[in-house]
Amino acid sequence: MKHTILLLFACLALCTTGRATTLADSVRGQQKFVQLVTNDLCERLQAEQQRKPFTNISAADAKSLLVSLMQTSLLAHAEEMNALLTTGKGGNTRKVGEQLGTEVVTALVSQCPAGQQLMVGAVRDGLGSKLAVTEAEKPVLQVITRDICHRLDTENAKSPLAARPAAERKEAFSTAMQGSILANMEAVANFYGFKELQNNKTMEQAGQKIVLLMLDECPVYLLQFSLDEYLKGK
Known about the structure:
This is DUF4197 domain-containing protein. A two-stranded antiparallel sheet has the order 1-2. The chain is an all-alpha fold. The chain is 76% helix and 2% strand. Helix 3 packs antiparallel against helix 6 and helix 7 (138-158) crosses helix 8 (166-183). Mean pLDDT is 80; it is low at 1-26. The chain starts with a helix and ends with a helix. It folds into 2 domains: 2-128, no CATH class; 138-232, no CATH class.
């Protein structure tokens, strides 16, 4: 997921290469531009998904498609982009690209089902190639996964998670996951055994498998959290 987002940022930066540009702290029309690009990109992704569903798309193909369509969407709104960007001394093109890229990706995650499916496909390919949920453990982990998603739905109903600060989203995500695991600890212990509960590798893999299942149950929360983690590490 991090690599997909990084390539999106790189694409945005490359599309403004050759300029010493900087985005003002408050630019009239910035949100309108982000929404224009998001809508355009979402329509293109929907068309691609209808042509070939993203269900089994590889991470490499997802990255390539995202970068290609982003470039096309930006070119389609080159005039608006030129009006938005201003020339300034010491301008950092990469920062401009990353700032806009962050907003576009955030909008894609929350607004565009096709964009969500593309990213889900990339994450599933990356994780699924390393581990798989066995038929024996799926019922146990699926109960936990659905409980986590239900807790996040409940929290989201109180106040939209997408509108909250990243720190609050992380707390909500962690609370939901920990609460669900504790509530289902007996079933987890019965399946894996108490000895394996002390095995960090086993529990780490179980957590990754829950992530895989969340991609089917409530992908938006997971993608938003992944984006938060990427931005935090920058």
